[in-house]
Amino acid sequence: MTAREAANPRRTPARAARREASRTGSSRRPQLRLVRAERDARSGTNAAVLARADLLLFFGASAALTALGLVMVLSAGSVSAAQGYDGNSFWYFQRQLVYAAVGIAGAIVIARISPARWRVIGPVLLAATSVLMLVAAHPGSGTSFYGASRWIDLGPVTLQPSEFAKLGLVAVCATILRNKANKLDDVGHLLLPIGPIVVVVAGLGLLQRDLGTTVVLCGTVFLMLFVAGVRMRYLVVGGGLGLAVAALLIVGEAYRRAPIFTAWIDPWAAPQRSGSQLIQGLIAIGSGGWFGTGLGTSRAQWDFLPNAHSDFIFAVIGEELGLIGALTVLCAFGLLVYAGIRIAIHAQDPFDRLLAAGVISWIAVQTVINLGAVTGLLPITGVPLPLVSFGGTALVVTLAGIGVLASVARASARGPTERAPSARAPRKASR
Fold first, then answer.
1. What is the dihedral of CA 390, 396, 399, 405, to 10 degrees?
2. Do residues 250 and 256 make contact, with C-beta atoms less than 8 angstroms apart?
3. Would you say the C-alpha torsion 404, 63, 78, 96 has a positive or negative sign?
4. Three-state secondary structure readout of 106-149
5. CA angle 301–303–304, rounded 5-degree value
6. What is the 3-class SS of 30-80, one letter each residue?
7. Which of 152, 250, 240, 251 is nearest to 206 (CA)?
8. Facing residues of 159 across strands?
């Protein structure tokens, strides 16, 4: 160590390396934003221990939320199920139980797939779902509910293609950002081809009149760009333009203006029409008190609160389980997001890190949008609460995302040497 470095203890070797890289013109961001440049490579034993701890915390939170979702779907949807399905109050619960079983089986299979396979699966999945989103948006082939046309009726099941688009878009963006890791300072490389891909997928979401899913998709990509190390000024400008476009889209269409101006800003202006859902949701949450009224005793489910078992299930949680139960659910989501971030940080490969960060960003953004709508902090957009709300496609795809994060953690446990064996050393030349 030189005398100058000894006099300035803040001049760490990592900072000196970054300054030298900048002077020589090499990449100015050798590490992603989630990872400290000073972090040393971990041994295989430490990586395995960290991966097991991450998976234990992650699976614990995921299992708790999925189980809670099944219980609350049964509790919140029993009345509407009995009214709509020949007195079968277990109809929603039975369907959700089947979807949960399919999703868990899919998550187990996906967890055993190498994360690198998503470089191929992602583009195929996104292309297929984009076509299906276009089919769902067509009045002759799609199924419309509450003004949105985002479902395809397949007889015994209803498919929502935009849910699969979330996973496909995350995988595609992770691949592009990994390949352009040293070119993210160039605006041209940054916008192509991520910009056109996001515009097309978001446009299909708007064509379906599904503003909530469109916001989730764009918000997920925004966070992935942040994780990849894109300059903050680019993110600020891009985020500002995105908000401006969203405001123009909201003002330009009557079906988007209504949830903002009458159902969110002043729901009491139309308490029996557009404002009724938010008002009844707040009444349900407020009537729960500290410990709630008890499972199955919700008054909101008796036709007072629309979509009590789906988009507004958190209001029923607040009523039946009280403030303590609602805070417990929030803590479970916090643990889920925290464990997902740990999995992304501990990933050995940059693509794996971006893939994990994208999946947990999608789950986090969707959770914030749903909880914000139920509590009146954000407009109502029809976005379900991950793992908890009723919805077959949403539950299956979210559990598939859980499997992707598990596969990243398993790959991290194996370490870089096991995942990518080094090339065989050249033989010594014989004399």
1. -140
2. yes
3. positive
4. HHHHHHCCCHHHHHHHHHHHHHHHHHHHHHHHCCCCCEEECCEE
5. 80
6. CCCCCCCCCCCCCCHHHHHHHHHHHHHHHHHHHHHHHHHHHHHHHHHHHHH
7. 250
8. 152
> What values do phi and psi take at 292, rounded to 5?
80, 175
Instruction: Please give the Cα distance from 247 to 245 (Å, whole number).
Output: 5
Angle (CA) 151 368 192, round 5°: 70
Rounded Cα gap, residues 330 and 385, in angstroms: 11
What is the identity of the amino acid at 138?
H
Single-letter code of the amino acid located at 253: E
Q: Are 385 and 219 in contact (CB under 8 A)?
A: no
Give the residue ranges of the chain where pLDDT is below 50.
4-5, 9-11, 14, 17-18, 20-30, 37-41, 417-431
Tell me phi and psi for residue 13, to 5 degrees: -60, -35
pLDDT digits (tens, 9 = 90+) for 8-60: 544 455 455 445 444 444 444 445 676 654 444 455 568 788 888 999 999 99
Measure CA 401 to chain center.
8
- Is residue 189 within 8 A of residue 179, CB to CB? The reply is no
Strands laid side by side in the 143-145 sheet = 143-145, 148-153, 158-159
Amino acid of residue 411: A
Q: What is the pTM of this model?
A: 0.85
Write the CA distances from 193 to 187, 190, 217, 222, 281, integer angstroms: 11, 8, 16, 15, 42
| Sign, CA torsion 200/203/208/210 | positive
* Interacting residues of 24 by C-beta distance below 8 A, sequence separation 6+: none
Place of tokens 């992770």: 174
Amino acid letter, residue 51: A
